[in-house]
Description:
By secondary structure, the protein is of the alpha+beta class. It has one domain. The protein contains eight helices and four strands. It is globular.
Amino acid sequence: MSERVRLGGMALANGVLVHGPTAWACAVRLPDGELKVVAQKKRLQAARVRNPFLRGPARLAEAIALLPLVKRALPEAQLPFERPRIAAAMVGSALLTQGARRSSLRPATRELAGSLLALAPAVLALRGGELAAYHGAEHVSIGSYEHGEARPKEHERCGSHLVGPMLVTSAAASLAADRAPERYRQAAKAAAVVGAVAASTEIFGWMTRHPAHPLARALARPGHELQHRLGTDEPTDAQLEVADAALEACLRRESDAHDA
């Protein structure tokens, strides 16, 4: 395949998941040091969705749908939110978020507080064990492949860059839903969630195409600082080996699909 494949990824507590338009591959380091790799074709392919309103939710659904497939194919994979303390943090964050959104704070402040609280479990997950280092390995491996040269542990398309757009769109969508008539408010809030995901994904896409634009840089700043200071650590050679194995396995499956 001559063209570079558009890739995404996810760090695990003991490895890296890499996925392309039609395939995914996961590599993990077992306790005895063995490197184990599994690669499969995707069942749900969000890359085929062209509708701007549906692209973002489709990509989110695809990412969620991959996790049980990965776990079934590679039981040794340790997903980020499997640890008990992270599950407890998710429950606590959900309760605090609901409390913030029902408080007497100003609407904009209320939504901002709720959105920030929702990030807490992800930040906590990244600061435990080897996850942040595998996150860095994922970025180095994918970024180096995409750019054809050695890249740092931060990546311009990391999902952390969705933080800025999501804060803006979630607040705007929630405020709009609150103004809907009482009988339509629950439906409006559900639509607001989908709309915020769709809008933030489209904004994120625009940001990656216009990285030098002042607005794109401002929106990307929170996510960049998050991945630079908290979300990634410098990977070891052994961790990079795991990420590269996942990358190579995914590219082979993508090549097979292209040649078929």
